[in-house]
Design goal:
heterodimer, A: about 160 residues, mainly beta, OB fold (Dihydrolipoamide Acetyltransferase, E2P), 5-stranded antiparallel beta sheet, B: alpha/beta, Peroxisomal Thiolase, Chain A, domain 1, globular
Chain lengths: ~160, ~375
């Protein structure tokens, strides 16, 4: 066993470049269907409360990940929250520098036990701190399609 | 008393920033030949093979099918775990504890330099509906988590940088490590901002390499090796996959995996009983968070301990003496394998200029990396 020969000249190295086209659809399912319809039609945030565990999930979902009980009812929550953490993002996905650094935040969503990850708008990085109260900025109703990008970001209250 | 499982053969490549002279198959082959040679066995002697592979990282949609031939596992019982090497090690241990298998081979590989679009691949690991459309990089998520760690006062920015200084310094003593350097805290703090507070030098850079280990039953160990290293405990756990409902403060999965491994190994007081630890440091602060989750330091104390030199090579609990991910390189699903490899070398007394004197019990901890919440822990002894 073992090799007695190795490539020891850089100009003898070869490789083949390959790509795979990968496309999917991702089904929302019961919980997310309710959540995004409420965002699209009413600009409302719908959560799901597991009565057994006392955990309120945002976005709405159809079962509790702790006790695995089904959840059919939804509760409306205000969509406001407070900044739990944030980061100033300097690089794009292709690792080139962003023209303007973006502020990505984790937001403790009021009336829920969950956090939303989204961008902060209308605030400078140096003014962001933990606990900053924020509210969602939605697209105009006519432009909403029932998608996470219906939420443009969160801005200080 | 429960039968123990021995590591009886060790094979590995060096961990390098690129490996253009070898295919991914040849990397594993090189490690396999060394492991079989050391244990004095041939592939035909092996009862089962456990490989570690993630489709998107390998560039195959059924990558497990391509794990076997370079190990001599064709026409043999073989399976593949899509997790860290430590998850595969757990499967290997279980095979032997059934007493139906005497010799099991466990493998992991990183050919990170072949991946042209790693940020996109990691983005593809996010929830496709809620998170992926926001164009969030894995490092941005690390930035959120690190900032919370700092906001809670769990460590200072400088203490996180001290982890980088220590690990890259340790790597200078490890001939297998690809990213050793003598740097200062200021080098880290002045490096390019990526997703503040995360800066370029806070991030474990990618590396290539392969590790193969031969496991065997306690009764067979004397015939394969005169320097067995024992797997006394192993554990694994996961938190919620969702960004929305997971714990963002503590590495809960690491704590649960550690407790499971400690119970199996009969360890009541980890901070007193563990002689050295190799923990995940994919981002600098993660080493501190993981040490605290593993109960090796009280919450909020690991940063100060690092600054005070307690986790240095000559400290009371040396951590990542191999160089860790920051000094050896981030090896994706092979990361845990590099940690176990280091423990085996240390526990055999073969770690050269970075040998921890009197190393008797070691801990290896893996995390599947951003954006996962899966962890595994192994406790080894000489």
């Amino acid at each position: 066993m073992g090799l007695t020969e190795k490539i020891n000249r850089t100009d003898h190295l070869s490789y083949f470049e390959g790509q795979i086209p990968v496309e999917y659809v991702y089904t929302y399912g019961l919980g997310l269907e309710k959540f995004f319809r409420a965002i699209k039609d009413k600009g409302q945030f719908l959560a799901s409360r597991c009565k057994a565990c006392g955990v309120t999930y945002l976005p709405a979902r159809s079962f509790c990940e702790r006790c695995l009980g089904g959840i059919e009812d939804t509760v409306e929550v205000p969509g406001t929250g407070s900044v739990y953490s944030w980061t100033v993002v300097h690089l794009n996905m292709d690792e080139t520098p962003k023209e303007e650094p973006a502020i990505l935040a984790l937001i403790d969503m009021d009336g829920t036990d969950c956090r939303f990850m989204h961008y902060l708008t209308g605030v400078k990085a140096e003014d962001v701190k933990a606990g900053l109260k924020v509210k969602p900025v939605l697209k105009a109703k006519k432009d909403r399609v029932g998608h996470i990008e219906d939420i443009l970001g969160f801005q200080p209250v | 008393m429960r039968e123990r499982v021995a590591i009886a053969g060790l094979g590995y490549t060096a961990f390098t920033s690129v490996s253009p002279g070898s295919s991914y198959r040849e990397l594993t082959y090189e490690a396999a030949v060394k492991a079989y040679q050391e244990a004095g066995i041939e592939p035909k002697d092996v009862d089962s093979f456990v490989c570690t592979s993630e489709d998107m990282l390998e560039g195959y949609s059924i990558s497990d099918e391509y794990c076997n031939d370079q190990l001599g596992a064709v026409l043999k019982p073989a399976q593949t775990i899509p997790g860290d090497f430590l998850h595969s090690l757990a499967v290997g241990v279980m095979h032997i504890l059934t007493e139906k298998f005497d010799i099991v081979v466990v493998q992991a590989l990183s050919k990170a330099s072949n991946m042209k679009t790693i940020p996109d691949l990691l983005n593809f690991a996010f929830d496709p509906v809620l998170n992926r459309p926001l164009d969030v990089t894995a490092y941005a998520v690390a930035g959120l988590e690190m900032n919370r760690f700092l906001v809670e006062g769990r460590a200072t920015r400088e203490q996180c940088a001290a982890v980088v200084v220590k690990n890259k310094g340790n790597a200078l003593r490890n001939p297998l490590a690809g990213y050793g350097a003598a740097i200062t805290v200021d080098h880290v703090l002045d490096s390019e901002p990526v997703a503040e507070p995360v800066r370029m030098l806070d991030i474990a850079p990618y590396a290539d390499g392969a590790v193969v280990m031969v496991l065997c039953s306690e009764k067979l160990a004397p015939s394969l090796t005169d320097k067995p290293v024992w797997i006394n405990g192993i554990g694994w756990a996961s938190d919620s996959p969702t960004i929305e409902s997971r714990d963002w403060s503590d590495a809960v999965a690491v704590r649960l995996a550690g407790d499971m491994a400690y119970r199996m190994a009969g360890i009541a007081c980890p901070s007193k009983e563990i002689d050295l630890a190799e923990v995940n440091d994919e981002i600098s602060f993660k080493e501190l968070q993981h040490l605290e989750a593993l109960r090796l330091f009280e919450p909020g104390q690991a940063g100060k301990a690092t600054e005070d030199g307690k986790t240095s090579l000559d400290g009371t609990l040396p951590v990542n003496v191999s160089g860790g991910g920051l000094g050896v390189g981030h090896l994706f699903e092979c990361s845990g394998a590099q940690k176990v490899l280091e423990l085996v070398l240390q526990l055999r007394g073969e770690a050269g200029s970075r040998q921890v004197p009197g190393a008797g019990v070691g801990l290896a901890q893996a995390w599947r990396g951003i954006p996962t919440t899966s962890a595994a822990v192994a406790i080894l002894s000489a």
